[in-house]
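Hello K.,

You asked for the raw outputs rather than the summary table, so here they are, unedited. I folded two proteins back to back in the same session to keep the settings identical. This is the first:
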Amino acid sequence: MLINSVNPEPPPADDLVLMPWKPGPRHDISGPVFVAVTDFLAGSDADVQRIFELGLELERTWPVMHGAVGLWLWGKPSQLRGGSISVWETEADMRRFVRWPVHAEIMRAWVRRVGVVSDSWHAARFDSAAVLTQARRTIDRPHRDAA
C-alpha cells in the first residue's frame, strides 16, 4: 500500500487503530527529522480510554507545537495499549514537548499506573511509509510490562 506524507493511510493490521495524520507547523519540512514512538500499557479499559482522551486533548495543540512535523495516535484496544508516533524537526523539539508543563503533569499523574515504552530515531527526511514501517516494529512487539 502506498502511503505518502500528504495523505497517509494506515497499513492493514490486527487490531491496530491508527488515527489520521495530524500535521504540525513544520509539516512541510524537507530535511532531517526525529521520530518518537510511545507505547502505553494500561491496567484497565477505563484507564486506556482515559489515555486515549488525553492523547486527543494533546493532539489539539499540535498545529502550534514548536518543531512538530506531525503525529499519529494509535491504539491496540484488545491489549489495553496505545500511544503516539510523533515526528519532529529535531530531538530538542521533542524534548521541549516532553518538558512542557501540560505534558509533564499528565505523565506525573500516570507514571505509576501505566507501563511506558518508547523508541526513537533520526531520519534523513520525513517519509510516512518508512516511519510507519519502523514504528510498527515497536508497536507489534509485546509490551515489556505485559503479563
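The second followed immediately with the same parameters:
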Amino acid sequence: DGAVLMLMDDVVFRKVLPEQIQMAIAAQSADDQKLYDVAWEVFAADEEESDPKDERWLVLSEEASILSSFQAELGDGHTFAKASEAPLDSLSQFTKVVSLIPMDDKLTPEDVLDSTLRLLQALAKSKEGGAPSLWLLTTTTQPVSLGDMKGEPAPMHAGVWGLAKAFRNEHPDMEAVCLDLNPSVTSAPAIIHQVRTVSRQPSTSFEQEVAIREKEGAMQLYAPRLVDCTDKVQVKDPASFVEEATYVISGGVGALGLVFAEW
C-alpha cells in the first residue's frame, strides 16, 4: 500500500564467495552451534480484574449462533459481526478486536488467513487513531505437551500464529495476541473470562502467544520459551552405513541440507 518499510544510509554491498561463507560458519563459537526447541512454561496473570465498563469489543465470527451467545453475555455496548463484514475502517473505536477462528473445516485455511491478513492490515492503518488490541482465538493448534493434540482435529488454522508473529515483528508497538484455547473452553462466558484473564498481564512482560490448558482440574496459562536441547539430539553411537550401498538425500540444498549431507 506504499508504506515505507525500511530506510538505509551509507549502505555498501559487496560480493561474498561461498568459500568465505563456509569460513565464517567454521569460525562461529560453540554457543552458535547449539540447538534449541520450544518448551511451553506455565505463567500467572494478575489477579486484579479490570473494569469491563471501560471495554468495547468487536467480536468476529462466521457463525451467527456464536455471535448471539457473545452478545447475550457482553451486552449491547459491543459490536458483533461476521469477519467478512467487519467494520475495518473504524477499528479505533474499540478496545479489543476478538476474532474467533473455528477449529473445524467449515472455513479453509486460505479463507481464514485471507480474512486475518485484511484484519491485520486494517489494524496497522488505524495505529494513529489509537489501534485496539487484536485477539486471534484458536483451539488446540499448539502442541503444548506430549500427546496434547491426540484425538483432536488437525490444526488447520495454526497458520494465523505465523501471520501474527510477522505482524508483531513489523509493528512491535501493537498488540496481536494469539490465544490457543483448551478444547473444553467453548462457551461464551468461559472464552470471555479467559481473554480477560490473559489481559491482566504486566505491560512490561506481556505475553502475546498464550495457550490455555487444563491441568489437575484447573486452567493454566502457558507461554513458549526457547530451551537448549543440544544434549538431547547428540548421537551417542556413530551412524553405520553400508559401504556398497547408495544413499540419496533429496531436497534441502540450503544450509541445513548441506549440514545434514556432511553428517
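The longest strand covers residues 218-228.

Happy to rerun anything if the numbers look odd on your end.

Regards,
P.
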